[in-house]
Amino acid sequence: MTSNGDDDAHSPGTPLDEALAWFARLQDSEASAAERKAFHSWRAAKPENAEVYARVEKLWNSPALSEALAKFPAAIPPAATRNRRRTPGRWAAAASVLLLASWMLAASGLIDRWRADYTTVAGEQRRIALADGSIVILNTDSALALDFNDDRRGVRLLAGEAYFEVRPDSARPFVVNTDNATVRVVGTQFAVRAGEKTSVAVDSGIVACGNEKGAGVQLTAGQRVSISKETVTSPETIDSGSTFAWLKGRLIFKDRPLADVLDELDRYHPGLIVIANAKLGNTRVTGNYKLDDTAAVVRALADIAGARVTTVSPYLTVVR
């Protein structure tokens, strides 16, 4: 994706990211004929491009989205005015559309939150004492449902990440389920992160985990695996200091692409962080930052990478 002026925008990479970027750009009444021609070329290049763009349009126009967004009138333009031609600058238009797009993508997550017993919002962490004496520390933007009775100790991590300090009970193993994995322990400390793949990292003790196809592995302290419905990776050694740094309110990384670091930081940020330059995203960075001021971290990382930060609104930060 190309742009005029000093935006130097490049599409982030995945078809969904590209579709959102194009959708945002085309809402601006100042979008040029050349940009619209480039969009049609992008949409025709791959069947998946057309498919994902149609999905974004459908969600944008759905009544369900309007109802969900009605809770945020100060941040989001009314549904009745979405399709009118607007005069604000293109970054202002992108702010509104990208914010709405984020809620479109989070629609299924809202269902998870309705099912959950405990939730956190972006930037929040919560310490939960369970009935058996175990402790759960629920990380940012997460949802957890309980499955406890006299015979069973279980939880379901519906979204996000949690750290478990499990009280030993050999008669009742502690079980954590996600959409694609099952983690079983007697008494130990470990973290589970849900998503398209489930990540399990062990801080102490022994953890057994696997998927619904029966593939499984046993982990010990300082190891991590990634689990999907199809596969379970071999255990890899982790740097416990950086892996569990979030428990101390920090983000630690070494020689990682800026895009990956900002993607991780975005989990703790109350709005969207967007890189508008693909080359910039490949810049390698190292750092150790507090998570209590994510906007300051973005600015610090931008300084290291020689980038600029544009704060379009409290809900959209662009690094370029």
UniProtKB/TrEMBL annotation:
- Per the UniProt record, which residue ranges are transmembrane? 91-111
Record key words, sorted: Membrane, Transmembrane, Transmembrane helix
The protein's matches in InterPro entries, at most eight in alphabetical order, are given as: FecR (IPR006860), FecR_N (IPR032623), Ferrdict_sens_TM (IPR012373)
Membrane found in the keyword field? yes
Q: Where is the FecR protein domain?
A: 117-207
All residue ranges annotated as the FecR N-terminal domain in the record: 17-59
For this entry, the protein name equals: Transmembrane sensor
The family database entries (Pfam families) matched by this protein are listed as: DUF4880, FecR
